[in-house]
Amino acid sequence: MRADRLVAALLLLQRRGRVTVAEVAAELETSERTARRDLEALAASGVPLYSQRGRGGGWTLVGGARTTLNGLTTDEIRSLFLTAGPAASSPEARTLLRKLVQALPAPQRAGAEAAARGGVADPTDWSRAPVTAAEPHLEVLQRAVVEGEQVRLGYAAPGRPERERTVHPLGLATKAGVGYLVAATADGLRSYRLSRVTGAAPTGEPVDRPAGFDLAAAWRELAARMEERLHAATVLVRAEPGTEALLHRLGAGRVRLLRELPDGWRELEIDGPGPEVVAARLAGFGARIEILAPPRARAELARIGAELTARYG
Q1: First and final CA of the chain: distance in angstroms?
Q2: DSSP string across 167-195
Q3: Burial 206-242 (b: 16+ CB within 10 A, else e)
Q4: Is residue 133's pLDDT more than 60?
């Protein structure tokens, strides 16, 4: 498991102060390519590391600092082991957790062991499908972010043909288990879902990083834009009592209660990418929902109904 290797690499740095890629590979029993990628990932995550090339070089904690578990507070240790524990499904991961426990001061070990047993992780949804899509080009993009190198990116957005463009990778973000690349382009700041990336080839050219760039602020801006697109249209409906909760559970869109009607039904607004999309989401509710406006949504629902009637009689 990669999380295990990252922690193990950090502990190795703690013990030795400076390591080479070859030493990390030998210690963790991985390839040098994997070891280099893990060290780069640690640096990208905020660990104060720098690399020095040439004879006598290697990876060093900045300023000769020593990253130790002894400096963690009780709350930080609890949080660490609550997070790491559910992922420890393999013998290797459990061995790593035991080593981490032994690295703690004695008074904190019992709490850490209890926290490690306090959760479980299931990587599939209720349909037994993995919740995180494959991201085959993640390694290349991680390196591009760390090394500040432009990438020729292949990308296939839903309903559009695949296309290529040169981007300036600025960071990686995760939202609800889905990974995204944040990059500067000729058209401004953009985000790319990693599972839709079809190719990633470094160009050798340096990234043009905006002065004062803040990844967290940039992601908030991009996420706000996406949310606007996802809720660009509003459909007005009247719904049978009890339908509102079902709409929320099935993810039909952003739902707002306007008022209760004299007959007990409820008047709702439902947001979505477009009137036709919202109508399609509501089609399965049958007579429990009546679309009031706009006309485009009513027409789409009528079209769906006619199509189903023609097929099933």
Answers
A1: 53
A2: EEEEEEEEETTEEEEEEEETTEEEEEEGG
A3: ebeeeeeeeeeebbeebeeeeeeeeeebbbebbbbee
A4: no
Q: Where are the beta strands (DSSP E) in the chain?
A: 18-19, 49-52, 58-61, 149-155, 163-175, 178-185, 188-193, 197-206, 233-239, 254-260, 266-272, 289-293
Write the pLDDT tens digit of every residue in 149-181: 999 999 998 878 889 999 999 998 888 778 899
Chain-centroid distance of CA 189 in Å reads: 18
Helical pair 2-16 and 32-44, crossing angle rounded to 10 deg: 80
Q: What region, left, alpha or beta, does residue 250 occupy, with left being phi > 0 and alpha being psi -120 to 50 degrees?
A: alpha
Q: In 3-state terms, what secondary structure has residue 95? A: helix
pLDDT digits (tens, 9 = 90+) for 194-209: 989 999 999 999 999 8
Given a contact cutoff of 8 angstroms between Cβ atoms, the answer to whether 117 and 110 are in contact is no
